[in-house]
What we know:
By secondary structure, this protein is mainly beta.
Amino acid sequence: QVQVVESGGGLVQSGGSLRLFCTASELTFNGHAMGWFRQAPGKEREGVSCINWGGALTTYKDSVKGRFTISRDNAKNTLYLQMNILKPEDTAMYYCAAAMASYCSGSWSSMEGYISWGQGTQVTVSS
């Protein structure tokens, strides 16, 4: 059964850091690009970052570039999101998802390209 589980969220002050984790079944993880999404209350879910299967190619939402870093450990079936210099506007539920493809397509920030989703982990940044 396909499973994706996020962890690492919490409450942090503005300017602080958090590291999110996403573990997935081998079936879900192997050969797939992985993405991080987030959804704030009353807003649509948006793509934050994507990493290809090999881990060498990454892409980010403009507002997090230079602050967030996505990475993966394929031996551990684990995806990471290092978040630095957090801002109150980063407050959201963060989700991990496996893409249908092994690469991050031009539409990587669209939910339609992803086949497996976790339940999310809450990130709250206080001002």
